[in-house]
Write a structure and sequence with these properties.
Layout: H1 12-28, H2 32-35, H3 39-60, H4 67-91, H5 99-104, E1 123-132, E2 135-144, E3 154-162, E4 177-181, E5 185-189, E6 198-207, E7 210-211, E8 218-221
Antiparallel strand pairs: 1-2, 2-5, 3-4, 3-6, 6-7, 6-8
Helix pairs in contact: 1-3, 3-4
Length: 223
């Protein structure tokens, strides 16, 4: 039986109760037309709710409970909950429904207040691994801080390619190229002529312009 912990009740009888509540509101409420839920969708929901209720009673009755009855009950509830999700997605949580309407349907009003997230404080570095000719894979590694912190929106990976005999960077501020990624594993495809040179890296976490502390300077040979 499909469930959705955010809004759909876990119990089958509770799911029928919610569906019947929706039907009561949509079939008798004066605002049903304003919500633009078509009559065909309401009729289908009523039929599916009725079928689910019948099959549930059959599956729970000791005299009629069989593997076939249980399978039919499961199918009926899958169809009912799929239809409820479809109706919710298409017609609920859209104007002109007010919070009171949403609550009346047994749903929670949407939280329109964005989750606050501040300046990143975690420090990250990378591990490199071989992928192919003049390619390096990079994996983000947390040195300090919590990887689940909402401030950790993405990673600014800075790097420079240094040939033999050239002066290597001594701190992250010396790095010249960068790219932003939200992935904890990514790929850098260097120029063909960079093979055999050394790439130096450092990473900062970024959150809408706010930057975390630099990670350590690391290096790897470009294959």
């Amino acid at each position: 039986m499909a469930t959705n912990k955010d809004w759909l009740p876990s119990g089958r009888q509770d799911q029928i109760t919610m569906a019947n509540n929706w039907l009561s509101i949509l079939q008798t409420g004066t605002t049903a037309a304003d919500w633009s839920v078509p009559a065909a969708a309401i009729t289908e929901l009523a039929a599916l709710a009725g079928e689910a209720e019948i099959t549930l009673k059959t599956a729970q009755n000791e005299e009629t409970r069989t593997p076939v009855a249980s399978a039919r009950c499961k199918t009926a509830f899958n169809s009912l909950t799929d239809k409820m999700r479809d109706i919710k997605k298409r017609w609920f949580h859209v104007p002109p429904l007010a919070d009171a309407d949403i609550i009346g349907l047994g749903l929670k009003p949407r939280d329109n207040i964005p989750t606050a997230s501040g300046t990143p404080t975690a420090q990250v570095t990378i591990e490199t691994y071989l992928v192919g000719r003049h390619q390096l894979g990079v994996k983000i590694i947390y040195v300090t801080g919590n990887a689940a912190d909402t401030a950790n929106k993405g990673y600014r990976l800075w790097y420079s390619v240094i040939a033999q005999g050239e002066t290597p960077p001594t701190n992250p501020e010396d790095l010249r190229k960068s790219f932003f990624t939200k992935r904890k594993k990514d790929l850098i495809d260097f120029e063909f002529g960079d093979s055999g040179k050394t790439a130096y890296f450092a990473v900062q976490i970024e959150n809408e312009g706010r930057k975390g502390p630099w990670g350590p300077l690391v290096n790897a040979l470009i294959p």
